[in-house]
Design a protein that fits this description.
The chain has 283 residues and is mainly β. Helices cover 0% and strands 54% of the residues. The chain has a single domain (5-281), classed as monomeric porin ompg (Porin), CATH 2.40.160.40. The strands form 3 sheets. A 12-stranded antiparallel barrel has the order 3-4-5-9-10-11-12-13-14-15-16-17. A two-stranded parallel sheet has the order 1-6. Strand 4 (47-59) and strand 5 form a beta hairpin.
Length: 283
């Protein structure tokens, strides 16, 4: 990854503190969908990124274990390495559905502004596709207050399974630690936030991240939310990255949820725009 840097795919960053399902039972969950962003990411040419993540997770009242394997397509700069695929707020890295409204926080930790080594060279246009970096995650919620407030910690490890030469992966193992807190407002709404720290094992580059948001159900089956994210630049010649998102979720059935979202970059190094959908299944 010495000649590349990793930029954000909507909310695919370790600072995305998402949450456990609002109404799902403990056990297995599976999700897939599509994430698309476009932007110059601080470079001279536009880069379009498509990610189709396949995720699985097992949750208990306080613990959560997950894995996400993304299919990635990059059309644009060869300096841009995509994230691993995560939706805002209500979907964590391994596919938990709707988030903090009457639920709890579980850090999702999928990587958008992942640390990089030296500043990128002049961009070369590429068009590549294939397996991206697989991410393993574990989360624990040690504090669940009587009013529903929750404090959670998470560890995410991004493994170098994507082809670095094709800009499909970071080319090194990257770990992220995060802490998130959600506080209920009424019976079915909440505000949430979190901070994280991520470090690349080989290059030693690191970054501090943060997120804040709010969400809630407006009907029996519909919920809406909004969030904003920030990632500290890991290199002197890179800029800090900020972006914001709006998302909505629908409980299609007791076992199936649909989530859609849109994202807009607030800095030149973030994607100009993007969006995606998720289907989450709880057997």
């Amino acid at each position: 990854m010495s000649s590349k840097f990793v930029c954000g795919l909507m909310l695919t960053a370790a600072f995305t503190i998402s949450a456990a399902p609002a109404r799902a039972d403990a056990g297995w969950s599976f999700s897939t969908g599509a994430d698309y962003t476009t932007g110059k990411y601080g470079e001279d040419i536009t880069t379009n990124i498509l990610i189709i993540p396949f995720s699985a997770a097992y949750s208990t009242d306080r613990w959560r274990f997950g894995v996400t394997a993304p299919y990635v397509r990059v059309d644009g700069s060869g300096n841009i390495v995509p994230g691993a695929g995560a939706a805002p707020g209500g979907l964590s890295g391994a596919g938990d559905p709707l988030s903090t409204a009457t639920g709890g926080v579980t850090p999702s930790g999928l990587f958008g502004s992942t640390p990089a080594a030296p500043a990128p060279p002049t961009p070369t246009r590429i068009e590549e596709q294939g397996l991206g970096d697989i991410t393993l995650s574990v989360g624990v919620t040690p504090l669940i207050a009587s009013n529903g407030a929750r404090l959670a910690f998470g560890l995410d490890v991004r493994t170098p399974t994507g082809d670095e030469a094709k800009s499909l992966g970071a080319g090194q193992t990257i770990a992220a630690l995060s802490v998130g807190y959600s506080h209920p407002i009424g019976e079915r709404s909440a505000i949430y936030g979190g901070v994280g720290y991520q470090r690349a094992f080989d290059s030693g580059a690191d970054s501090v991240t943060a997120t804040i948001g709010a969400e809630g159900y407006i009907t029996e089956h519909w919920m809406f939310g909004a969030s904003a994210q920030y990632a500290q630049a890991s290199l002197d010649r890179q800029a800090n990255q900020s972006q914001a998102s709006l998302y909505a979720g629908l409980d299609v059935s007791p076992h199936l949820r649909l989530v859609g979202y849109a994202v807009a970059g607030l800095t030149d190094t973030a994607p100009d725009s993007g969006g995606g959908v998720r289907l989450v299944f709880h057997p």
